[in-house]
Structure prediction request, 127 residues.
Amino acid sequence: MNKQIITPDKAPKAIGPYSAGIRAGNFVFTAGQIGIDRQTGKLVPGGVEAEARQALFNLQNVLESAGTSLENVVKTTVFLRDINDYAAVNAIYAEYFTENPPARSAVQVAALPAGAAVEIEAIALIG
Prediction:
């Protein structure tokens, strides 16, 4: 099986030695996306809600660059710097996954890249 590296034009560039996404067979596996604004290269202001919205926007752009969409996501993992932000992030998440939401895990972690409050990764089907 071949793998295709996904390098989206509308999402921030990777901040390390990894790919934003990999297409393998009928699946796309994304790297975790944080609330970085592609234009500034910095976290968006406004707290965890703004970061979650930007992270999901970035995730959407990675998926679209791979030829799929949020509607085809089958699994996500949400990493939170503080599990007390769960409800706030969940409200933003529900705006992006309105019908038939994917399976999801949410975990608190000690720290995230760039001091982010939230990071979201996904696995999606093509088509």
Summary: The beta strands are 3-6, 21-24, 27-30, 33-34, 73-80, 103-108, 118-125. The CA atoms of residues 6 and 125 lie 14 Å apart.
